[in-house]
Design a protein that fits this description.
Radius of gyration of chain B: 23 Å
CATH superfamily of chain A: HUPs
Structural class of chain B: alpha/beta
Strand content of chain A: 25-35%
CATH topology of the largest domain in chain B: Rossmann fold
Number of strands of chain A: 15
Distance between the termini of chain B: 58 Å
Number of domains of chain B: 2
Distance between the termini of chain A: 54 Å
Strand content of chain B: 25-35%
Oligomer: heterodimer
CATH topology of chain A: Rossmann fold
Order of helices and strands of chain B: EHEHEHEHEEEEEEEHEHEHEEH
Radius of gyration of chain A: 22 Å
């Protein structure tokens, strides 16, 4: 028989038992998301004395990580539906690049920025990143875990590990976690239902008694909101001070020893077929499919 | 005490998936390279019976958690069960497949056991006694080989990097690991799996062919009109006749999010590429897509690539596809469907 020590869930049971109807006071939705290189940029790895990096990394145009962006839009949409809710964006990245990023992101939806000045490299260790983000969330003034939903992407377009959100949840003592989320539906009593992506284009449907919970989003279902200068002006009242007081942190690669990083040469000898009838092409394709 | 622990889970029918069998093959291979032993831990309903089906895999011991609480995939109970298995086995290397269930819970188990974790592993090698793992960063754009001195080390391996293990069933030497699940850990209740209707299921991971549709299907055609209904009929006809899985470019599914008329059976679930999935299929046929880098990364694990496109200067023609047909996809797919019967 295996006897286990009490986990974080047991330790937070008292608090969770007190959370009934907390949703009526509004949710605190904390979105974790940072910048990644614009997907249209060509990336080339370079080796620094300690860790791999990207060539001209500081010069590369950045965007908000796509999955994190989806979670931000979903957070804003949820906050609109639950009166009294507030959205925070906790972002770890070089301060100057975060400032650039906010020029566009801040015009999308209302949020309060919590900026952390550190590396946004994909090569950093998820454990270190999660520890830093969890500490930043814990430090949000007035944080009430009984009303807390932690949002983020199910993976990033940089590290693409798909573990950071779970690690943040563990450090916050949150054991109701959902990964690959495309939908959340809140009920009046604070409970909610979730659809998570699983294999084969299917969804795992769950219900949860209520906050706190971690939701690592896939794409959700909302389009990118258009830029709204009024939202941008309102957000910037918080963005600038948040950037000014961004705490510098050293986030590294942990115990990872990078042996090699490369962009494999995968140039194919493409055969162009043109000025040929649809019949001929179709026959060739069918032969290929069946071959 | 085994050197490696392989964590598996049963499916809703109590069996082990193809991905699980592939991870067994990976474990057998790695164990031989390290010259050590391995144990297997199975989570889920029917875990004991599932262990019997792989009794001949060479594991020195099987541990099972088959409490009702792990009958369905849920983070809190799965993470606790996996933690118990890791603690029980005491192995320094923990392998698991990259299934949605294990991807969800293994980070939590790693945290609770003080382990390091790396995911999406596409190759494992041992050089001079050092375990080295290969994985992609920046969404299949930079391939990296890494190692870690710290232990335990949890590694989630991708599907398709090894053939599925095949071997004899029998009576496995198994030990049931008891785990106490609290009420708090069961606040999340699994209601079930939502699947598209059988005739609407377009994502088929085991299909030999991936068919990717781009936004060109929804654009005005040569007659100046939209033919979205025709496109739907042609694509669905092709999928059914060829038994193909359906992928989409980002631009096509974004049209739907923006409320524009598009293919009704298409969703973000189908999206491949930089911000979508990177499926593994033997062959891929791209239609009406631009093969720019963000899209092409979704094809990283497609062996044979062909494309139908109207633009000979498209990115697909720049060394990313094997064959690019410069033609009208409406006409070609209609003919293909005729030939496929």
């Amino acid at each position: 028989m295996c006897s286990l020590a009490l986990g974080p869930a047991d330790c937070t049971q008292m608090k969770i038992n007190q959370m009934e109807n907390k949703t009526m006071e509004g949710l605190q939705i904390v979105v974790c998301g940072t910048l990644v290189p614009d997907p249209l940029q060509t990336l080339e790895p370079v080796t620094t004395p300690t860790v791999p990096g990207l060539k001209n990394e500081t010069m590369l145009p950045s965007v908000l990580d796509p999955w994190a962006a989806h979670s931000l839009y979903e957070a804003a949409n949820l906050a609109k539906k639950v009166p009294g809710s507030k959205v925070y964006l906790v972002s770890l990245g070089p301060k100057a690049k975060l400032q650039q990023l906010m020029m566009t992101v801040a015009q999308k939806v209302p949020f309060e920025l919590v900026a952390i000045d550190g590396s946004a490299s994909g090569f950093t260790d998820a454990m270190e990143v999660a520890k830093t983000l969890a500490a930043a969330i814990e430090a949000i003034p007035g944080l009430d875990k009984a009303r807390l939903l932690v949002f983020g992407g199910c993976a990033s377009a940089s590290r693409d590990a798909g573990v950071t959100m779970q690690l943040i949840g563990e450090q916050l003592g949150i054991t109701d976690q959902f990964v690959g989320v495309d939908e959340i539906r809140m009920s009046d009593d604070g409970s909610f239902s979730v659809l998570e992506r699983i294999e084969g284009g299917q969804y795992l449907a769950s219900t949860c008694a209520g906050a706190p919970a971690v939701l690592a989003w896939a794409t959700g279902s909302l389009p990118e909101p258009p830029n709204n200068p009024q939202v941008g002006m309102a957000n910037m009242r918080f963005v600038i001070p948040a950037l000014q007081k961004a705490r510098p942190v050293a986030v590294g690669v942990g115990s990872i020893n990078f042996e090699k990083s490369e962009v494999p040469a995968q140039k194919r000898a493409t055969r162009i077929v043109k000025d040929v009838s649809a019949d001929v092409i179709a026959a060739e394709i069918v032969e290929w499919i069946k071959g | 005490m085994a050197d490696i622990l392989l964590v598996l889970h049963t499916g809703c029918d109590g069996s082990l998936s193809k991905g699980a069998l592939e991870s067994i093959a990976t474990t057998v291979d790695l164990s031989a390279k390290l010259g050590g032993s391995f144990a297997v831990g199975v989570i889920g309903a029917g875990a004991g019976a599932a262990a019997d089906t792989i009794a001949g895999c060479g594991a020195e011991k099987f541990y099972v958690v088959e409490d009702e609480a792990v009958a369905t995939p849920r983070y809190s109970s799965d993470a606790k069960a996996a933690t118990a298995l890791i603690q029980k086995a005491g192995a320094q290397i923990v392998l698991a497949s990259g299934s949605s269930r294990l991807t969800r819970c293994m980070p939590g188990a790693a945290y609770r056991t003080g382990a390091q974790i790396d995911t999406h592993i596409v190759a494992l090698a041992v050089e001079a006694g050092v375990l080295k793992a290969q994985r992609w960063y920046y969404r299949q754009r930079i391939l990296t080989t890494l190692s870690r001195a710290a232990r335990p080390w949890v590694l989630l391996v991708e599907g398709g990097i090894q053939p599925a293990w095949q071997g004899a069933a029998g009576v496995a030497e198994k030990e049931s690991v008891a785990v106490e699940f609290t009420a708090v850990e069961q606040r999340t209740v699994i209601k079930g799996v939502e699947s598209p209707a059988a005739d609407a299921q377009t994502i088929r991971p085991d299909a030999a062919l991936l068919f990717v549709a781009g936004a060109g299907w929804t654009k005005k055609q040569a007659d100046g009109e939209y033919h979205i209904s025709d496109a739907s009929t042609l694509i669905q006809g092709f999928l059914n006749k060829a038994g193909a899985s359906l992928g989409s470019s980002k631009s096509l599914v974004d049209l739907q999010s923006d409320g524009q008329a598009t293919l009704s059976f298409m969703s973000h679930m189908n999206q491949v590429g930089q911000t979508g999935t990177t499926p593994r299929h033997a062959k891929g046929l791209s239609t009406c897509c631009h093969g720019e880098e963000p899209h092409a990364v979704g094809w990283r694990f497609i062996n044979e690539r062909r494309a139908i496109n109207m633009d000979a200067n498209c990115g697909w023609a720049q060394g990313k596809a094997d064959v690019v047909y410069i033609a009208n996809a409406f006409e070609v797919i209609a003919k293909v469907n005729e030939l496929l019967g």
